[in-house]
Design a protein that fits this description.
Helix 1 crosses helix 2, helix 3 packs antiparallel against helix 4 and helix 4 packs across helix 6. The protein has a two-stranded antiparallel sheet with strand order 1-2. By secondary structure, it is mainly alpha-helical. It starts with 14 loop residues before the first helix and ends with a helix.
Length: 328
Amino acid sequence: MPGAQTNTSLNGITPTQQMMASCSGALLTSLIVTPFDVVKIRLQAQKTPFHKGKCFLYCNGLMDHLCVCENGNTRAWYKAPGQFRGTVDAFFQIARNEGIRSLWSGLPPTLIMAVPATVIYFTCYDQLRNLMRSYLGYDGSFIPVIAGASARVGAVTVISPLELIRTKSQSRRLTYRELRVVIRTAVTHGGWLSLWRGWGPSVLRDVPFSAIYWYNYELLKKLLCKKYNVSEPTLLISFSSGASSGTIAAVLTLPFDVVKTRRQIEIGELDAMKSPKKLSSTWIIMERIVRQSGFRGLFVGLLPRLLKVAPACAIMISSYEYGKSFFS
């Protein structure tokens, strides 16, 4: 009945089981997607070598992580020597010359934040969606929008300070004691909100993406289940619904992704160079892009984003749904 509350979701599994399903899905997604981003970064480094203070984004299929090149560290994985003739050649050369494990270079440190963030996000989404369905007594199309946006705000809010701390630690090779001093100084000068400096651009991109993604995913899943006369989504239905909804969300939120990427890199490089220069606001960065490249500049990188987002969304949601069906 509407308003009834239990410690299980509507499909009969507990929040702990939802967390386990999302955790396994996150690990599987990162293991499949990461090699493609490692190859992309190695090809970028071959074309334009990374120097001290240079920043780049590392994607493990779950989150984008800012990486700052370390001074004098010639053994860093992204500086490993190699002459690649393309993506496929890079895969084979890295695996043959450096070992198959090199295709997952840099992955473990990013999982420390990416996996908890994914677990928080997916579990909160399911709990909020089921709670609203239970209280309202019907399955409105707006429910996935509200639940998805709210879950993403929560995940970004929890992870943003940790990602900022990770970036500062990485860029300056700080000890834990020095890191505490840096954080204390930042809080003294900028207040506690300074620890959420990258929160705005992340929310600007991730919340609309999440709302659009979950709306389309639930809609497509329902339509396909009805078409094939099944009560629960099959692996193929989840995979195709996830890929399609991820593609739609990626296209519609591309301008926010372009701005977020620019601002993330600007934050990292200012920190790495200890520059007193004031950080540009999100709207100033957007205005700068439009002035330099026109409105088309807000839509650069569409194909690479689709090639990254669509498979990651498909793998994550299908493995998550499979994990939930395993427990139910």
